[in-house]
What does this fold into?
Amino acid sequence: MINVVILDDHLMVLEGLQSMLNSQQNIVVTNTFSRGIDLLTFLKTETPSIILLDINLPDSNGIDLCKTITNLYPQINIIGLSNFSDTGFIKNMIRNGAKGYLLKNTTKDELIKAIKAVNYGKTYLPIILKEKLLNESFGVQSSTFIPKLTRRENEILTCIAEELTNTEIAKQLFISTKTVESHRKNLHQKFGVRNTAGLIKEAFTKGLLN
It folds into this structure.
């Protein structure tokens, strides 16, 4: 039996995934959570086969949470769930321990296929995401694909290019340094980079900075 736990802060998503999976033989959704902290508490005493993990959560960063769970419980397989098909998110999830990545509009058949593949020790990505990563690796999208940024992310990106520190950015935009750090992390994820130098380079390449 494949025991599945789902973490997502949207009730409709939780109910939809449960409905798709609970009708399947050999797959059972044992628990659902809407907060990362509750999942971590649960994992202290229980060990599911697979976690379907939303990467955008109200109380934690899904990518960081993926890394934490992988480090603490390497026997648990994680499949990332997201509305975002940006390659930056995909690469960061896989880089931090996820064995698969699915979009939230995935079909029932693909969801089941992914769970079974990951349970057997394989890494699973939908064909459309594999093609996207492959195209990027050959440079097809490196200069043409532009991540969708929020107004605040654009403001912070500009400030970073001006070499402002997190404290200076916070004062200029009237936000906390913690908020700045969170936006910086999101920018790194969206661009698929690991540091500020990589972020600036990608932003210039894509024409987001002058």
Summary: The domain at 2-137 is CATH 3.40.50.2300 (Rossmann fold). The chain has a mean pLDDT of 90.
